[in-house]
Amino acid sequence: MLRNSFRARLIVGAVLWISAGLLLSGLVLSQLFEELVVRQVDHDLLDHAEELRMSVERRADGSIEVVRGLSDARFAVPQSGLYWQIDSPTGQTLRSPSLDSARLPLEKTGADGLQQMATEIGVLRINQQLVHTPGLEAPLRLAVGMAQSSVDAELAHFDRTLAASLAVIALGLTGAAVLQVTVGLWPLARVRRSLMAVRTARAERLPDDLPREVAPLVDDLNAMIASNAEMLRRARTQAGTLAHALKTPLAILLDEARQLEAAGETRTGRLIQEQCLKMQRQIDFEMARARAAGRSTPGIATAVQPTVSSVVAALSQLNRQRCIAFRYDAPDDLTVACDPQDFTEIVGNLADNAAKWARSRVSLSASRTGAVVMLSVEDDGPGIPMASREAVFDLGARLDETVPGSGLGLAITRELVAHYGGRIWLGASRLGGTRACVELPTVAA
User: Does one domain contain both 246 and 152?
Assistant: First the structure.
């Protein structure tokens, strides 16, 4: 899908860049916030430690006491996450009500400053320091700590909020990228629709009012369409001119051959007539091929229903004395990628051939299967033996010389169908005679 779609490539590329940028931004913001929170917690611990130091006094008996409660009420709430403890060199220990019955293992470390410590109430971030108090020879060890879980909870809450915010931003940016790509590629979609209009013969060229980026492509396509149309016109004109130039001498030769035959030169006259007829058949065959030379030219399209209806009407009139009934059944919206004249000749040849052999009925039907339209022509005649169904497509082939015809119809039809990328075959008809089937590419709506 990515290999065959500009839109998918651009959208996927935009999504990847947006995701990578927002992920990197999220990691950086999370790290910065963590550093900010840790610095703020350490600053608060220092402030609490200073406040606690200012609240410690020595009694007359040499013991110490905290004469004032600290300003943060969490120190008075058990298991609140904020604690303090003072160890006296005499063995006295003062603890905040929040510690309840727990004790901080300050005696296990002699380091001052900020650190993390595992305790019986969890991991704490502790600021401990030695404080000299008047009247005491040895300093007091004072510690203020905060539960690391409180810090982690704050960081987790921020990360969740940040992730949700970045996800919303990612969705918004992705939507904007999709909109931008869609709008940016709109001219290409317009070119595609215009090409389809040309292919279906609803337009002769692509529009000129397109952005500068695609204007050269459109100009080249218009030039190619015009060139193909001109080449097709010239080829058909030259083929028609050549056929006209050859038919006149052939007619003269045929007339001379008949005069020779009438004058007694029967063998010579018949030989000349046979060769002239062969040349005439070859000219007609090559003319049919020349008319189909532009099968890949954009804009070639033919509606099936009107063409078949006109052929059926004409053949019904021609075969009215034989009382041949023609029946046509097909949807009205079928269109084939075939020149109207060539499609008329295909249908006409098959229907005329069926009428020649039919006893009373000829049935035509058309249907669409995927990207092809199948045309079926059936008759109730004697049918064609299976061994001869392929041979009748040969140039000049005739199974019965008593039936009028030149033997060109099926040969020309097969050549035309092959030129348009289709196929033709014969089979047995449900009416008892022969069924001719033709498949031609359809034109998308």
Answer: no
